[in-house]
What we know:
The complex is a heterodimer. Chain A is an alpha+beta fold. Chain A is built from 13 helices and 16 strands. Chain A folds into 3 domains: 21-99, 2-Layer Sandwich (Dna Ligase, domain 1), CATH 3.30.1490; 103-229, D-amino Acid Aminotransferase, Chain A, domain 1; 239-385, Succinyl-CoA synthetase domains (Rossmann fold). Helices cover 37% and strands 25% of the residues of chain A. In chain A, the strands form 4 sheets. In chain A, strands 5, 6, 7, 8, 9 and 10 form a 6-stranded antiparallel β-sheet that branches. A 4-stranded antiparallel β-sheet of chain A has the order 1-4-2-3, with helices on one face. In chain A, strand 15, helix 12 and strand 16 form a beta-alpha-beta unit. The two termini of chain A are 42 Å apart. Chain B folds into 2 domains: 10-120, NAD(P)-binding Rossmann-like Domain (Rossmann fold), CATH 3.40.50; 138-289, Succinyl-CoA synthetase domains (Rossmann fold). Helices cover 34% and strands 22% of the residues of chain B. In chain B, helix 4 (102-112) links the parallel strand 6 (92-95) and strand 7. Chain B is globular, with a radius of gyration of 18 Å. The chains are: A alpha+beta, B alpha/beta. At the A-B interface, helix 4, helix 9 and helix 13 of A face helix 4 and helix 5 of B.
Amino acid sequence: MKLHEYQAKELFSRYGLPIPEGWLAKTPEKAMEHVGRRGFPIAIKAQVHAGGRGKSGGILLASNMEDAYKAVYSIHGMRLRTPQTVGEGPTVNKLLLEKGVDIDREFYLSIVPDSSTGSLLIIASAEGGMDIEEVAATHPEKILQVQVDPVMGLQEYQKRRVAYALGLTGELFASFATLLAGLYQAVLENDLLLAEINPLALTVDGDFFLIDAKAKVDSNALFRQRKIAAQYDSSEEDPLELEAQRHGLNYIRLHGNIGTIVNGAGLAMASMDIIQQAGAEPANFLDVGGGANEDMIEHGFQILLSDPHVKAILINIFGGILRCDILATGVVNAARKTGLQLPVVVRMEGTNAEQGRKILAESGLDLITATDLNDAATKIQELCLT
Amino acid sequence: MSIFVNQDTRLLVQGITGKEGQFHTLQCLEYGTRVVAGVTPGKAGQEVAGISVFHTVHDAVQETGANASMIFVPPPFAADAILEAADAGVDLIICITEGIPIHDMLRVRRALQGSSSRLIGPNCPGIITPGVCKIGIMPAHIHRPGSIGVISRSGTLTYELVDQLTKAGLGQSTCIGIGGDPVNGTGFIDCLAAFAKDEQTTGIVMLGEIGGTAEEAAAVFIQEKVDKPVVGFIAGLTAPPGRQMGHAGAIISGSRGSATAKIAALEKSGVHVYQELGQLGAFCAKTFAT
């Protein structure tokens, strides 16, 4: 679950991290009120769940009223397309206004749980404000990575390593070490999958400020992060994906026209691949899970049918605990209830597969039964050609 | 022989009194697995299918000599359940639970380093040595005893492959689902090392998927240490970057974890990569025959 910049900053500031003075505005009018009261320079920043906002016109700096007015009205309501967004990008309906600071140096600082080393990884660079992936690709020597043992916690020498690598000594070392410790604590206590400050600014007066901040919370931990869960802004999510979530379905919308209903994430991904190998494009990822019942199959159908791009559906089920006869009944009922008009290829294997196929065959519905995965691929291919 | 489980495996089930725990305990019993104890805090003295329930794993181990545990404890308590099993000296811990927070698993993984316990999972279907011992939620009837070792990050995808292997006349020595989470216990390399040493195993199939770098690391290991033929398959060629495909670990982030990178790494190491899932069983039959 992604947080907005203003939410991440609010969270980090509770751990003593210094954030610039800022105000959130949901309308352009409110935004202009803040501008009038606070003076210049002021940064006007789109609050959407995506990086790359600056380069895409989602962040502007104004030094007078006229510029501020132009900036506020151009950003609010815009669809922000950045390298990290899909399609036309999310609509900006919240602005963060921030007092400008006099920046001397900019750093990159982040902490992520790293699965390959089983550690909490601190990533730091004196090349702040840049796309860190790009720095990593072109100048890996400019990035420092420090692995923190999740049981031992952040050690003093690790703080020194990071600070000195960034060229921070004396008083700057002390204030940076406190900041780093606060960020580490924030990651631990809030189940963060990402805490990123880019840039971390050092002003000419020797003060640190979080100019941009990103935070991502582990969705699996929301049961113990209720406060954060309540902050979730779902307005940028695909409406069909939200609908699927409500029914406990794991659905991701893609751009093709062959819909899929599969049990199990790995098999669902593999089924998408099969569709592409057959010369078509998958319209979605949909894992109904091992405990799928008739209702879930029906909701899955309805969601696929709500996507106007879907021209045909592949149902691929390997019945383990989920019995094929139960699934077949679900498919038949869902097809009848939704008045299914699209061609549907059904392939089921595993527990009670024979009975399942019989139920489909005797339903009188125009379902295309595939005997195995190969056959399913061939049948999808035939559908694409006609 | 087989790897990790055999006829001497004595299983206890943590979370045995829950709906899933009960159901799968019965399935394992039916298959012939020696289920010797159950654990649910607060429910000592009860029985599930004639199996005694204990308050703690320590009690269960002391009373029954259990040396393996299958965990069906809900996600908020699952990491604690794994630590409890390890502390009680259980050799093999199989955690089926899906949805454990990653920070919990980081601590668990660290705690298990240097311990004698082996963790499989979490978020996995379990492990089976066909005809001998099943610990997990996989449909038993598709398996046949044989000489092919199977390692996978996914559940139903494994069933798909095993079914094809059996139909192609290839039985399995042991099939292990290592789970779809980014931080897990036993990985591809542990399993590859064990299969490489196992006399019964003559060929290995590994099913990978997008996300992380475990397949890339496995590729390096195979090149250096495995002289048995390995067939590989990677799910997620069509998965877009930045979207998590069901499994918490299945996400392409930045330059890491794409299917094409994994396929290239495996092919470079001499793994027989084959991406037509519908004919993977037949491909294995051909590859392992030569």
